[in-house]
Automatic annotation (TrEMBL):
Gene Ontology molecular-function annotations: methyltransferase activity; RNA binding
Name used for this protein in its record: SAM-dependent methyltransferase
Organism: Bradyrhizobium niftali
GO BP: methylation
Coiled-coil stretches noted in the UniProt entry, renumbered to this chain: none
Stored InterPro entries: KsgA/Erm (IPR001737), SAM-dependent_MTases_sf (IPR029063)
Gene3D superfamilies in the record: Vaccinia Virus protein VP39
Organism lineage: Bacteria, Pseudomonadati, Pseudomonadota, Alphaproteobacteria, Hyphomicrobiales
Keyword terms of this UniProt record: Methyltransferase, RNA-binding, S-adenosyl-L-methionine, Transferase
């Protein structure tokens, strides 16, 4: 259940850093329901990026995910103490999600789902690659990355999906959210190899990030 001061906390954070926060209010119940719809207790561990005041986190708990299976990555210092108080058994880390490739959060690839509330449309191509590619370095085969957007299309552009070997599908639109939002599901594309003259899926591999040269900025308001 959202606390009465959540709107004020979000609004003040947005006022101080609008491009980083990306929204003036916490996500509504319709969007929280949608972005967590395919997640169950067996999906854990779960990595949540940009949880803010915890609107999606509360819904994950209602889906049966244990707090112990949650790792919350939050860059906004205004939200850190709030998240630690609300979810004392979760792992709450104050860090930039763009550093997921340099900070080893897990041994191996145990994560079943990533839930992202980050404003990807406000970020450069390089940053989006670091965040999405870094997150997938922890995602087990069959896992997924769930991203919401206020835009009309997937906030991860096709060139980035191609680079990382991912595909995006629209889960649905939360028209009752204010403003209306959409949720996209990112998954790994099947890797094909030649086996006795026919194509067959290759074993899943982890995403390898290479330096980006002359990265183009796809920034836009989310």
């Amino acid at each position: 259940m959202r606390m009465p001061n959540d709107f004020l906390s979000f609004f003040l954070s947005w006022m101080s850093a609008p491009r980083r926060v990306g929204a003036i209010a916490p996500s509504g119940a319709a969007l929280a329901d949608l972005i967590t719809r395919e997640i169950t207790a067996s999906s854990g561990p779960i990595l949540e990026l940009g949880p803010g005041t915890g609107a999606f986190t509360y819904k994950l708990l209602k889906r049966g995910v244990r707090q112990q299976d949650l790792t919350l990555i939050e860059y906004g210092s205004d939200f850190m103490k709030l998240l630690q108080l609300r979810f004392p058994n979760a792992r709450v880390l104050w860090m930039d999600a763009g550093r997921l490739t340099t900070e080893r959060l897990y041994d191996g690839t145990p994560v079943g789902a990533v839930v992202s509330g980050l404003p990807l449309l406000n970020m450069s191509t390089r940053k989006v690659v670091s965040i999405v590619g870094g997150a997938f370095s922890y995602v087990r085969p069959g896992g997924a990355f769930y991203q919401f957007t206020y835009g009309m299309s997937c906030p991860v552009p096709r060139p980035i999906l191609d680079r990382l070997g991912l595909r995006a599908t629209l889960v649905d639109r939360a028209l009752l959210n204010v403003p209306p939002a959409a949720v996209y599901k990112l998954t790994r594309r099947p890797q094909m190899k030649l086996v006795t003259g026919s194509l067959a899926p290759a074993p899943s591999t982890r995403v390898a990030l290479e330096p980006i040269h002359h990265a183009r900025d796809y920034s836009a308001a989310r």
